[in-house]
C-alpha cells in the first residue's frame, strides 16, 4: 500500500520479530543504524498507552550525499527511516518513505533518478525480508 510516498507492507510476523528482522537486514546490508526509537516505550514512560511503534533511522553517505548535493533541503528527510507498527486490528506493518517521492518533494527527481532507483530497490528488498522473512 502506498499513500503520498509512504510505502507500507503488512508483516507476516509480530512487531518484535519484524523489528528484529529489519535490524538484522540493515546490518547485513552494510547500512548504518543511527537510531532505534521505541515510541511505545516512551509513551509508557509518560503514563500513556501506544501500540507497538518503533522507528529505525539508517543510511549511508554514498546513498544520501548525492541527494544532498542536488538539494541540501533533502537533508531534512535523511537519513532514511522505517517504522514498524501495529494497527488497531493487531496487524503489524513496516512503513517507509519512497526515495523517489522524497526526491520529487525536493525538486531533484530527474537529476537523481538512478540514485533513488537504487535506494528504492534496496529498501524494497529490506522491507520484503523484514516482513516476509525472504529477500
UniProtKB/TrEMBL annotation:
<dbReference type="InterPro" id="IPR005180">
    <property type="entry name" value="DUF302"/>
</dbReference>
<dbReference type="Pfam" id="PF03625">
    <property type="entry name" value="DUF302"/>
</dbReference>
<protein>
    <submittedName>
        <fullName>DUF302 domain-containing protein</fullName>
    </submittedName>
</protein>
<feature type="domain" description="DUF302">
    <location>
        <begin position="37"/>
        <end position="99"/>
    </location>
</feature>
<dbReference type="InterPro" id="IPR035923">
    <property type="entry name" value="TT1751-like_sf"/>
</dbReference>
